[in-house]
Specification:
Order of helices and strands of chain B: EEEHEEHEEEHHHHEHEH
Largest sheet of chain A: 4 strands, parallel
Helix content of chain B: 25-40%
Strand content of chain B: 15-25%
Oligomer: heterodimer
Bound molecules: iron/sulfur cluster
Number of domains of chain A: 1
Order of helices and strands of chain A: HHEHEHHHEHEHHHHHEHEHHHEHHEH
Distance between the termini of chain A: 56 Å
Radius of gyration of chain B: 19 Å
Largest sheet of chain B: 5 strands, mixed
Largest interface: A-B, 18 and 19 residues
Structural class of chain B: alpha/beta
Strand order of the largest sheet of chain A: 2-1-3-4
């Protein structure tokens, strides 16, 4: 199985390669590409035949940032220390030690959007991994085994950091990675929260964060500075606050962006929180949203119904869904998923970096009770003035999908709004049935129509 | 006396049967068609539409609302609406009140909660597994050599019941074969089969929440054992519209008389 597959598709680059191909040429080319995109986007006018208004102009910057990130990854081995981390890992600690970070979940989502996930999942399945395993895990393991990735090439990890605050899948997944790459794995265990975290739970996680420093220092070959840690935490705080503001702009009617925009624009907050340029990016995005609000421009041309999305997006259907729903006057204005990267910002306190990081990484929505998710959803229905809720029942993500049947019932009975359970999978199109899903979505829209 | 004027036509192209209903100004049924679905739905619906139009003397254009799985294939449709809204509309018009509507079709089944104004408030569908649908009965009727319209009567003709434990249509078939081989009476097996189907439906009813009265539409509503066992399991009397199988097409036609507003 995995242990015996070659690592030949992971190559070490020379410093010269890194300087030349990434620092000099790569960055310049991406900048030129961004200028071109900006020009194109600036010239776009609403099209007669489109149900959507033109995309946000700032997307050109995001494309540049994300491409630059993956480009640097291609040449990072041998030049920077690389860590692979889970999406809910305390990455700030590693940033403070100048690690280059890869988020396999984000990479898997990229494969999903580019419709490459199915074949990568099959690579993993041929190697013996069950189809019941999360499709993010299968996509990444497939990419690891085959070396195939739409990102060109991923750098090999020197360190793995896994935090169980999203699910237990990542624990086993990262053990597979550790066996495959033969590198150290740091595991941060976060007790599940039925209510707010108790002091002893925070202390337990804090101790693990403090203890991981020495392992990370050893791999990094440099010493940890609390000052730079505080700085990174501060950038993280600012970026999360801005991201939350960005999302809350959709309380306006018409909403200046859709949750589908949010799924795409969340790349930097997931992959690059702690970097100053992420803060700059969301400031830019916020300005543009405010401009839209001032001009009364919505993300879709005719916003008749406002809807909440629960759970991960269906990556391979994002474009289709946003057009199809937009065409029916439905704007998915909010999602519990994108909110997860902003709602904890008030907990971040750079003056107590270890304690506040422990607190933040204990509280993600997936590490909390199903009742907590229900009340978040109910609050969002009120605050965003929503007409309905789509709960994506994600075959892959068990912790996110658990409790949705009851949550749906509560939303229907207590809030009196239509709520739809949509069965699919976030990355594996084989678990998605087009005709059945369309039928359910149409009936859901007809119910909102009947209430109007 | 001149014929009453056709105001709208509804088509319901389902996976098993294809239905058409034409209605007049007051929503009264003026004519209908029902036959087994053929592979080329668009041709079949076109043909049936032609027959209905000439039978009722319709020359000019009338609104035609399409529903059912083949709704997007109906070329002449002025609009397409899901079966949820159409069944709700048809049954509400026929029975006159809200409640819980169960529609068991050939290839899916749905439970729809209707508000007091007849509009659907919530629904649940089973369209991933044949075991809770008419297909389950069709399959076993073929396997046991009992005509489909006799299934219910024969199941009710006995008090003995052989539980069918397989949750899957295909596996239930092997179970039936082994039960027959063991000499179990056919009627007892039939009763067990109906119980299995009804068990799935009633679970959906409870999921959506049972608001009485309980109403039944779709082809399977003709099966007396399904009705009796649903009543037994829920303790509620089951109400039937006059033509349960035509309710989708009827509701579609009614929507056609109302212009754009749904339900
Ligand atoms: S199971 Fe859910 S939380 Fe875990 S990796 Fe998969 S998508 Fe993420």
């Amino acid at each position: 199985m995995t242990e015996t597959t070659p690592l030949s598709h992971y190559v070490r680059s020379s410093r010269l390669d890194y300087q030349l191909r990434y620092e000099l040429l790569g960055k310049a080319l991406l900048r030129v590409q961004r200028w071109r995109d900006q020009r194109k986007l600036a010239g776009l006018r609403p099209r007669e035949d489109s149900v959507l208004n033109p995309p946000l102009r700032c997307v050109a910057y995001m494309k540049e940032m994300m491409s630059r990130h993956y480009l640097e990854g291609r040449y990072a081995n041998g030049v920077r220390k690389v860590a692979w981390v889970t999406s809910g890992a305390p990455a700030e600690l590693l940033k403070a030690l100048d690690f280059f970070l890869i988020y396999p979940e984000n990479h898997a989502a990229l494969c999903g959007v580019r419709r490459k996930a199915e074949s990568l999942c099959e690579e993993a399945e041929h190697d013996g991994y069950s189809r019941d395993i999360c499709s993010y895990g299968r996509t990444d393991i497939g990419a690891m085994l085959s070396g195939k990735t739409p990102a060109g090439r991923l750098p090999r990890p020197d360190l793995l950091l896994c935090c169980t605050n999203i699910c237990q899948t990542v624990l086993y997944w990262y053990r597979v990675l550790a066996a495959h790459f033969g590198c150290p794995l740091i595991l941060i265990d976060t007790p599940f929260l039925y209510h707010e975290a108790e002091a002893h739970q925070v202390a337990y996680v804090q101790r693990q964060l403090e203890e991981m420093v020495s392992v990370a220092e050893q791999v990094a070959g440099r010493s940890f500075s609390e000052r730079s840690f505080m700085q990174v935490v501060d950038h993280s705080r600012r970026a999360s606050e801005l991201w939350l503001e960005v999302l809350n702009r959709s309380r306006h009617r018409p909403a200046p962006m859709t949750a589908f925009d949010g799924f795409i624009h969340m790349g930097p907050i997931v992959d690059m929180r702690g970097d100053p340029e992420t803060t700059d990016y969301y400031e830019r995005m916020l300005d543009e949203l405010d401009e839209r609000i001032r001009n009364g421009v919505g993300a879709i041309k005719e916003e008749r119904y406002r809807v909440l999305w629960d759970n991960l997006p269906i990556w391979y259907k994002i474009g289709d869904f946003s057009k199809w729903l937009g065409g029916h006057g439905v704007n998915v204005v909010a999602s519990t998923y994108t909110y997860a990267w902003g709602e904890l910002s008030p907990m971040i306190d750079p003056s107590k970096p270890f304690e506040s990081m422990a607190r933040v990484y204990l509280h993600p929505i997936l590490n909390r009770s199903t009742g907590h998710k229900l009340s978040s959803m109910q609050r969002m229905v009120d605050e965003f003035h929503l007409d309905g809720v789509i709960l994506h029942s994600d075959r892959s993500c068990k912790p996110y999908s658990l409790g949705q049947i009851d949550q749906r019932d509560h939303l229907v009975q207590e809030m009196g709004i239509p709520a739809l359970l949509l069965e699919a999978d976030h990355n594996d199109p084989r678990a998605y049935a087009e005709e059945q899903s369309t039928q359910r979505l149409e009936a859901f829209i007809e119910m909102m129509e009947a209430r109007a | 006396m001149s014929k009453p004027e056709v105001v709208a036509i509804g088509t319901d192209a389902g996976s098993t049967t294809c239905k058409l209903v034409a209605v007049g100004q007051g929503g009264e049924v003026l004519g209908s068609r029902l036959e087994a679905t053929q592979p080329h739905i668009e041709l079949q619906v076109g043909e049936l539409l032609g027959q209905l139009r000439s039978e009722l003397g319709v020359d000019g254009p009338v609104p035609c609302v399409a529903t059912g799985y083949g709704r997007k294939l109906v070329k002449d449709a002025t609009r397409s609406v899901t079966e949820i809204t159409c069944h709700a509309r048809g049954v509400f018009r026929d029975l006159g009140h809200g409640g819980t509507l169960v529609d068991i079709g050939g290839q899916d089944s749905k439970v729809i909660r209707l508000g007091n104004n007849g509009k659907p408030v919530d629904f649940m569908m089973n369209d991933k597994c044949a075991a809770g649908t008419g297909r389950f009965l069709e399959y076993t009727s073929a396997r046991l050599g009992v005509p489909i319209d006799e299934l219910g009567r024969r199941a009710l003709s006995t008090d003995r019941e052989e539980p069918i434990t397989s949750t899957c249509t295909v596996f239930a078939e092997s179970e039936i074969i082994s039960l027959l081989a063991r000499g179990v009476a056919l009627e007892a097996i039939l009763r067990g089969l109906h119980r299995a189907l009804v068990g799935r439906i009633v679970a959906m009813v409870h999921n959506v929440g049972l608001t009485p009265p309980l109403m039944l539409s779709g082809g399977v509503a003709h099966n007396e054992a399904v009705r009796a066992l649903i009543e037994e399991a829920t303790g509620e009397r089951v109400l039937l519209p006059r033509e349960p199988q035509l309710m989708g097409a009827y509701g579609a036609a009614l929507l056609g008389t109302e212009g754009k507003s749904a339900a």
